Amino acid sequence: MSKTPVKSAAAAGPSSPIETSAAAAAPTAPSRFAERFSPSPQPAARTYPDPAMETLKPPVKADPKLANAWKNKSGSELTEEELLSMPDSEYMNDKQLEFFRTRLSALKDDLLSNAGETTEHLREDTSIVPDPADRATIEEEHALELRTRDRERKLLKKISQSLARIDAGDYGYCDETGEPIGLGRLLARPTATLSLEAQQRRELKQKMFGD
User: Fold this and answer.
1) What is the mean pLDDT of residues 59-71?
2) Which parts pass through the membrane (predicted)?
3) What local confidence, expressed as pLDDT, does residue 70 receive?
4) How many CB atoms lie within 10 A of CB 151?
């Protein structure tokens, strides 16, 4: 009885393209080391509202029906629409100054109230939190609050300066040109000291010269 010689795998020649592609496509099982030490997915970053940010408002068109409504109201009772309906000759009259004084004072009170709440929050003792990860999260939130309050502190300074400008009769006029800043810009940013054109020139200069 004759024996048929068996060819070795090395002598059998290269495998077919189909076999090669199938071997390449076969999934490899992850090693136990990779599963244990692979980085865990990071949680989504938290976002915190910044109350110090000043949101620009779209311009409001003057309503001719409100042209005389301001005459029978005090400055603190005026609405934005009634303010914008006042003639240009009444720019920064006593009622408009009273309107902005009231708005600035209310903004100042809100910021001071927020600062008091932050102080109470920061007094919480994080050492009583047993989990180091939770304690680190609380400390990060405290750091974010401190940065927010720092921006608010700068805004408080601007508000105090604006109130002083009202008392001095300089409020509403550009520091560089002396021209009116405009009601629309002051409604969007009550602490503005430059007209829109002067502000744009300053920003362009800062971009060009870096100062």
Assistant:
1) 68
2) none
3) 83
4) 14
- At 125, the pLDDT band (50, 70, 90 cuts) reads low
What CATH architecture does domain 54-209 belong to?
Up-down Bundle (1.20)
The single-letter DSSP state of residue 38 is: S
Long-range pairs of 142-145 with CB within 8 A, sequence gap ≥ 24: 144/48, 145/48, 145/118, 145/121
Residue 198 has pLDDT above 90, yes or no: yes
| CA 71/CA 75 separation, integer angstroms | 9
Angle at which helices 94-122 and 132-168 pack, to 10 degrees? Answer: 160
Q: Token digits for 159?
A: 């508000």
Q: For residue 90, which of 107, 106, 74, 70 has the smallest C-alpha distance?
A: 70
What sign for the dihedral angle of Cα 115, 162, 67, 60? Answer: negative
Average pLDDT over the chain reads: 74
Task: Classify the phi-psi angles of 182: left when phi > 0, otherwise alpha if psi is within -120 to 50, otherwise beta.
Answer: left
Q: What is the pLDDT of residue 47?
A: 43
Q: Which residue has the higher pLDDT, 86 or 52?
A: 86
Tell me the domain boundaries of the chain.
Answer: 54-209
